[in-house]
Amino acid sequence: MAVDLTYWLFAASCALLVWQGFRQRDGMLQYPFLMGAVFTCYLLYQATGLYLHRGSVPEDAFSRMLLISALCCLACYLGYRVRPLRQRPGSSSYSSARLMAVGVLMTCVAWVAYYKLTSLTGGFFSFFTTEGGYSYEWRGLPVRYIFFVGFAYPALVLLLVSYLERPSKVRLAVCAWGFVVPLAFLFLRARRSVFAMVLLIGLLPVYFYRRWLPPRVVIVPGLILALLVLMLFPRYRRYTQIGAEHSGIADVSVRESLAEGLVPEGVDAFKNGVYAVGGITRMGGYGLGLGFYDDVVAHFVPRQIVGERVKADLMVREGWVDMARVLAYGHARPANQFYTGPASAYTEFWYFGSLFYFLLGMLFRNLWVRATRDGCVASRVLYASLIYTAMNSIAFSAFIFVSRALWTVALLGAALIWARRRHGVPLARVSRGGPERALLGEALPGANKEAGTA
Fold first, then answer.
1. Could you tell me which residue, 244 or 306, shows the higher pLDDT?
2. How far apart are CA 438 and CA 444, in angstroms?
C-alpha cells in the first residue's frame, strides 16, 4: 500500500513539473519544466521498472525513495513559486569585446586540455576511438584534463552572449569554433549530458536576446524526440566512436532498448538510491551537510599535489553511505554508478533534504526574472551556465551542484567583473528597441507574462 501511494505521488509530482512547461510560451526553458523532464525521463522511468517488479528491492526502502523523490519534485515547484527578491533596475553595462576575449581564452584552455588528454592515448583523435576515452582509468591526469576541457561550456555561453550583444561575422565564426569540442563529444561519444547542455546553451542566450523560440508544433514533437535520444544514447555509444562498426546503429531497437530499462537488471541509479536510503535509515549516520563538504574536497583538492593520504584524511564521510548499504542489505554499488540527487539529499538531512531543491528553485527564479524582465547580462550568463548543473544534480547527486557551481560562478564572476564597465551606460543612452528596453524598466510585450510564475 505504501509503495502504491508513494509511486503515484511521485508520478503526479513529475506531471506537475512537466505541465509547467506547457502553461506559457517560454515555460520549457524554465527551472520547473527542465527539472521535471529529468525526474520523469530518468528517475520515474527507472522507478516504474522497479514498481512493475515488486520484490526486486526492499519495499520499505523503495517507498522511502519514492517519497523523497516526490518531495524533491514538489520542492522544485514550490521554490520556484516564491516571489523573487526586489532589486533596483541596474544600469550595469558589460563590454562585449571583453566577454568575447574571456570566452576565447577559456576555449583555448579547453583545447589545450583536450590535446593533453588525447596525448595519453597517442593522438588528437584517439580520444574518440574505441580504444580511447572509455579505456582510461578516470583518476589522476585524465580527471585533471577533463576538468579544464569543461571550460568549453561556460566559454560558449560568453561567446554567444558577446555575439548577440554585437553581432558580426567574425564573432559568429568564433562561436562556431567554440562549438567544435562540445559537438565532438556529442556525436562521437554520444554523451546525453553534452546533448542537453549544448541544446540549452544554444537556446537560452538566443531567447534572452531575441525572444525567439521554435513554434510549439515543432517544440512538442522535437521534445519527445530529444527525450528518446537521451534514453537511447547509451545504446548508440558503442557504434558512434571512430573505428567502431557504425552499421550497428541501424540495429539498435528502440522498443527493446526502452523495455530493458523497465526490468530490475536494467535499473541502476534509482536502485542504488533505494539501497542508499534504506541503508542510512537502518544504520543511521546522516551527513548533516558533510557530504557536500566531501564533494568539494574531492573536486578541489588535487591528489597529485597533496598526496592520496592527505586528501583521504580531509574527507570526513567518504564511503559511509556505501558501507551502510552493504551492512544493511549486502548490496554494493557498482563502480561508476551514482545513487541520484534525492537519495543523496536524504542521506544528509532525512526528508528535509528536499529543501535543497526548494532553495535551487528560489535561486533560478531570481536569475530568470532578472534575465528576462530586467535584461541583466550577468543573470543571463549564470542561468544559461548553471541550469544544466541543477538538472545533473537530480540524475547523479545533489552534492555536485555545489562543487560545480563554485568553480563556474568563480570563473564567470571574474569574467563579468573584468568586463563590467566602470561607469554604467546612462539609462537614457541604452539602445532603443529590442529586449534591451528592459534595462529602462519598460516591459516588453508579453514580458510580464513570460517572466511570470512557471
1. 306
2. 7
